[in-house]
Design brief:
4 copies of one chain form a homotetramer. Chain A has a single domain, classed as Beta Barrel (Acetoacetate decarboxylase-like). Chain A is mainly beta. Chain A is 6% helix and 50% strand. In chain A, strands 1, 2, 3, 4, 5, 6, 7, 8, 9, 10, 11, 12, 13 and 14 form a 14-stranded mixed sheet that branches. Chains A and B meet through strand 5, helix 2, strand 6, strand 11 and strand 12 of A and strand 5, helix 2, strand 6, strand 11 and strand 12 of B.
């Protein structure tokens, strides 16, 4: 009989058509991060089952990442339509058994393979369009670089509506990097049933802790930042709009993912 | 504690940000269908667990659909970026406990909400760009209409590569409609684990039979057809390229979906 | 020597690579139109050279069109990625030598061949994403149809920002159709110089009157409408936001274009 | 009366809605370049009026550029959807009054503002999707870097069809950089008439030489390369497919453009 292969659908005799190749997944990307605080009640309203509120109520970060990724062997790097993607997300801060963690309530990404990997990791990814200022290592007018005074921006839209934008004006190097985005990330994997009468009984519903290895981070630049979250039909991220903005950060970062720790199973 | 709502991620206090609203899902669309036969070995190579080969080995259909859909209340119809989508797929014919069925090994769709609904129904959806000739009910040169001699085409691409194209030249009305796409559809729902050592132990792996209601179909036009399936990196649908093409069909069809029957659970 | 062919760039030995094939261009499309009035000063501020203000100051219409088009022979109809496009535009009303005319200050379109044809006709086209509710001739829930009570919507975005949206609730058939979009359209063709010191001396700068033939229009449905125009970076159409909305219209229309009348040359 | 402003359409009282802001335009980008030879007859077949064949018949280059650009003041850099774009083009080599020059017969770009600037400069731009491997300055698996052995790729598609792909395997630093892309570029500005009977009498038809200033180039890496050009409906670039491939190059480059020299006027 059949023995179809593939880490995800579509599954075939070889597995090569899978929407994403099997782990390990190797990543590198440029990041803009804005540490901020939202309305504490709005943060509570998206806190997943199994997590406790953070004592610094309302603590959040907004993150834009311009990624390049590949599976083992790296063949996607030569075919960049299958390795590039950009994403934009919010994390809220919380506690898991007393430990500081982050969790991601809203995220947009611009490629299907990244959406699939996200769902598998517990990131609630939708499709969007994400843009982020780049640097090129030159002194040209069109290259802001990472020097003091350099200004960087990022935007996210979905369905032709603005979701969010952020800016950073670099003042200098940061010693510690972003604080609100620093704790380990714990997400909720969720996959529903369609069988009549069981729409509220998900088949997958488990709190998971991200696991990664082979991490490398560049030096981190920091400075004053702005952040806006906009309302739109079918979206709720704007409930996490900033009431206070801390600092912004620009860095390059990467790692490898081929594991995930299940913390609690609710299914 | 938290009690997040939503049929899918992202889940919130209200559920309004879910990538797709809960069933029922109401659909209407224009269709081009080409009945054909592929290499029987290639069809066998994508036959899911739990299905037996069809006695008419190699029997397939290619389908392009230009959809409009909504959830209960229909608010998406007023905001067509959230109701329109186009999809392009292949079905192979098979047997389930001796009954003729179809199953979908490859499918592309151009919106995230449709990709999510597809995964939940067992359609192995990837993102693509799909185009299909339209009619407008006029006698204008740019409107081929449904008259004898009218020519219709559809194309599907993904990652900037051609996946498939089809054409139909209408001869007249069909009495029975497409044959290779007619049997009930049985798909495989599949959602993997990322936990190290368990990448081959999917959490969701079940054969499911589509259930629908409130179906309506227009009269069906038919005539000679062409079909091409093209190879591309990371794709395998071209293994199902036609060795013989039967007829093409043009119809309008719709239904409502809010149920799914689990046939066999492999998880 | 060389004798390159082609109605537009890129020009080659055969002309087949031209971004748009030569006229005649045959069109058919579905339309949503909203007649309205903007701030008269804002309308004056975008009135082109050579036109006089309309006595009904501020008279405008917003139009969404879901087009299918082809050149002579109609080969694009079989390859719909080269025949479909959607556009969204504003017209203001004006006078030309005492005659009522319309002129288009802002327009977005979603395909390059349509952008090129637009520039050649004097439409100041930018790229955008446009969506419009469809009908399918069924009684299905997802098909609003053209019956009284049916609600239709359209949206336009550019650069991931909302430009405009409109809705229509059909009450019944209209006798005369849209009024603010009815007069002949007169646009400004404009193509600048890049030579230093001559950036303000356009090479093409002429008022042109659209010419068409072989027109066909469906019956027209009408009812109350809504219209919003939104501000966005690098855009100014929101200056024409409605101060009063008249009626909305839904129709199907088509024609053939292969001529253009030059009214005044400013170059 | 009216005095509309703006370097291009749409023109308004302020000029801010223009599809591209006025020059100077500041650019910086990463480049992949492949020097190669096409069939000399195919090169002749796209040689513009006013240029003579190059003695090294068939000499061409294929170029992919991942750009960031802005106008004076640089506000687009903070809003990267208005500053990023990618383009992919072919140049052929030719002679102008005995001097070696290049000229661009085919080019694709992914943003409207870049398409408009291209037409104004004489680049025959169409819309496409372009992807190119990136570097991040790390030693991560997903970052090929610029070290010997690093492999880079680029692809171009249009209308969902593959136009071209190229790869480079870096061996080391190049002393002289690309040769086939080095001579000054001379293009044909062309803007047609639509008036009946005058479709073959373009209003703008002039050979122009690019002028730039404030150029900066990084060190250039080089190595063996591959290049493919694919046929597609409505395209002719595949006539310039390689008969021999020389070397590939990876560099970062930028300049400022606010001038253009008219060489010959054919209108």
């Amino acid at each position: 009989m059949s023995s179809l292969q593939g880490f995800t659908v579509p599954r075939t005799a070889t597995g090569r058509a899978s929407i994403t190749q099997p782990p390990p997944w190797h990543y590198v990307g440029d990041f803009l991060v804005v540490d901020y605080w939202a309305d504490p009640d709005a943060v509570l309203a998206v806190l997943p089952e199994g997590l406790e509120p953070h004592p610094d109520a309302g603590r959040c970060a907004a993150v834009c990442a311009d990624w390049q990724s590949c599976s083992e062997g790296g063949e996607e790097l030569l075919d960049p339509v299958r390795s590039h993607y950009r994403e934009y997300f919010i994390v809220i801060n919380a506690l898991l058994d007393g430990e500081e963690v982050t969790t991601c309530p809203f995220i947009w990404v611009d490629q299907d393979f990244a959406l699939a990997r996200g769902w598998i990791q517990g990131f609630p990814k939708k499709l969007g369009e994400i843009w982020m200022t780049r640097t090129f290592g030159t002194s040209l007018t069109a290259d802001p670089g990472l020097r003091p005074g350099a200004r960087h921006g990022a935007t996210c839209s979905a369905n032709g509506r603005a979701m969010s934008d952020m800016t950073l004006t670099i003042e200098g190097e940061s010693e510690g990097g972003p604080k609100h985005n620093d704790p380990p990330i714990v997400n909720m994997r969720y996959f529903p049933r369609l069988t009549a009468g069981r729409h509220d009984e998900p088949q997958v519903h488990e709190l998971v802790r991200a696991v990664s290895r082979d991490r490398e981070v560049s030096k981190v630049m920091t400075g004053p930042a702005t952040l806006n979250l906009y309302p739109a039909p079918g979206e709720e991220h704007h409930t996490l709009a900033p009431v206070e903005v801390d600092r912004g950060y620009r860095l390059t970062f990467g790692y490898t993912v081929d594991d995930l720790e299940v913390v609690k199973d609710f299914a």
